[in-house]
Amino acid sequence: MKNVNFFIKTVSIYCICFLSTTITVYSATKDMTNGKWTIRFNDETRKSEFVKDGTTILQDVSVKFKHNTSIIESTSYSDIKFSEENYSDATGECKRFIIEYKNTENSTYPTIQQCFYLYPDKDYFLTDVFLLSSGTSKIESNYIAPIYTETQNRFLPQDANNRFLFVPFDNDGFITYGSLPLSRGIDPTSLGVGRYARDTISFEVTSIFNGETQEGLVIGSVEHDTWKSAIRMTGSPLSQAYINKLECYSGATHSITRDATDDNWLQPHGAVKGTKIKSARMLVGLFDDWRTGMETFGDVNALIAPKREWNNPTPFGWNSWGGMERNINFDGVISVSDFIKENIQGKGHFGEDGLVFVGLDSFWDNLNWEQLKQFADYCKANGQVPGIYWTPFCDWFPENDRALEGNNGYFYSQTHLKVNGKTKKLCGAGCMDPTAPSTLSRINFFIDKFKAAGFKYLKLDFMTNGIVEADSYYRDDITTGVQAYNFGMKHLRERCGDDMFIVESIAPLFPANYAHARRISCDAWGEMWHTNYMMNSLSFGWWLNRVYCFNDPDHLVMGDRSDAENMSRMTTGAVTGYCMLGDNLSTEGTYIGSATSQAKAKKYATYEKVNDVIRLGKSFRPAYGHKVFGDNRAVDLFYLETEDSYYIAYFNYNEGEKSGTLDLKKLNIDPDNIDTGKSFECWSSDPVTISEGMLEYSLPNNQAKLYHLFKKQNTQPKN
């Protein structure tokens, strides 16, 4: 290897942190170790190995990035130096190891600083990459991959139960999560193992895990201020053991990030510019249990960008879209408030803690501002919190230019984002520039009007319209969709103040620090297909309650579905810890609800034992990740541990009657610590039967069971 030098260098980084004043010169060995992890640099290949507890997890890892129009890899650099320093920020104290690459043969190439943050006791480390220009000239890049390897890597047993987790960028278009084998057959949509290596992508985070042992690698982005990030993986045919390519990178655009146009143009990710630019920081962890890894990933995200705290009770309530849809009318919604007050509120512990939202969804503008205030006041008089709906980054009539609300002199055309010079549209709505004064003025107008009317609950929808890549943004210092989204959302959150509960509906997973809750799936109503669809999202996105206070299962609609389907849909509220009813509960006005759905809503929303689980405000954990059921491929078994209880939810997704026994130890439940005399199934109140550590169950078709198992002695949850 040429010109390998060792040096002491303090690196200045723009973040909230402190660096210790003692910096250690890295010795001639190429092992960089702290705690469980070692980064082993190979002088000959100029690539790194990631080693945990003496076992190589990934090898031949390099940095790859785009500089101007060229794709460059760190292995092409010859002048390489190493340094080490004590480091501390919101994620904790660690050692930061820096590998610095300089290209002595081409001075126009930026210097690379590959940073590793190794902690004394963690199952993960963090890594990011800085690109530094020579002198004062600026560099730009729209792609940086801190982790890139095309070497065959194996860290799981050879097993058909190995899986790659697909995580979607947002929840639009009825998209689903995917638990995918590492190989496939001729049909790429099949979940069967086959002769072809699976080549797939996941957004912001993934896990590659074994379904039987639960061991898994978790890798993903823990910073969401600038980049859209993704993980690209190529698996292995037949053996189901190897990863043949792994690329974790910042700068992802895809049809799934909604950056493709109707004429099949894929807008590139915006370029980041400066004398020093960086990738998102990435987490790399190998965990005994991939579910613990996903939860840890969420926790680290929340350390870097703290979630919007909610110190009030778990939300219960009602939303108009599930049953009234576009038929909102004043007399109707007034009668809904009364119906809830008289028949549901405070009964069976529904909203027992004093918080019941009553929310108007889309088409709230069927009412004028005076009527909206009257509605809000009426809800308050009934002991309820009035809610409203809005789409801050959508122009629903993009072809019809008109003055913006608020008499501020702006027009809607001044808000539009452009791609190839044309207004960017999603779902028929023009995408609005979150940095434009016109957009911000519109935010001010509507938020101020909502607050003046007395609304304390705000549902935000079609948020992805504000995070798309575009030709440019109003502010010259903003060049990416994520930067623009953060700018606009920061303004919106500050305008709302701290006493407005914010829930996002259709929205990207990240950034997550602007809302209290996020709908975990796309729209879901009451039939079993919808329950199965929504549960797919909880199966692989339950951990999002680490970055949001609540996972929202969407409006819980009973309608004319069977009793079994009704119980299953309400159980989705229990396993997410959030409950918004959705049936048309109006008894007056121009669009009166059916007696059947109203009777069902009264019945199933007032089961005391079920509502007590909802009141916990916690999302259940999937029992496994490699077995999925129903058309929407959801896990069927979930569990939760609290200080005094275990909870189990078992779903039957149109599979006929299911009966048998569950091994409680496989759910991390200690059967010897269960007080069977106090325990019960929540819907029937029937006692439970446990023999030799096995819980007996019987599930009618389409019906979920929800078990509450009391502990004999209080213990701290294991997860």
Q: N- to C-terminal separation?
A: 46 Å
Class from secondary-structure proportions? alpha+beta
Shape: globular
CATH architecture classification name of the largest domain: Alpha-Beta Barrel
Strand content: 25-35%
What is the number of strand segments?
A: 46
Biggest β-sheet description: 12 strands, mixed
Q: Mean pLDDT score, rounded?
A: 94
The structural domain count equals 4
Helix content, binned percent: 10-25%
CATH-assigned fold name of the largest domain: TIM Barrel
CATH class membership of the largest domain: Alpha Beta
Q: Unreliable segments (pLDDT under 50, ≥5 consecutive)?
A: 1-28
Radius of gyration using CA atoms only: 26 Å
Q: Please tally the helical runs, counting DSSP H or I stretches of 4 or more residues.
A: 9
Q: Looking at this structure, what is the CATH superfamily of the largest domain?
A: Aldolase class I
